[in-house]
Amino acid sequence: MSSKHERIISPNLFYAFVDFGKNVDSMPVSYVVPSAVVADVIKHSHTLWLSTPGKAGQQRKDGDFRRFLPNYDKMGLSFGHGAGWLNPVQEAFSLVENAS
Asked: Which helix (H) or strand (E) covers residue 45, if one does?
């Protein structure tokens, strides 16, 4: 994702993220996420990431790239979006139906 997604917010806009699993036998899992949630999470996580030192201890450089992840704890970014934070929106296509 990019920095522009931090500003794209609409009550009728949802993102569907699909996890295809670890192998071809895995069933895909979808997460239906409101645009306001995506915008908030990528903005907050990127700001937090910028405040942490890089691999060599250097100050990180800001860029346009943003990451939307199912577990930010794996990146060392602890802000309440660790493993399982997307579970409430797993296969939540009813959110789209309710918004229309």
From this structure: helix 35-50
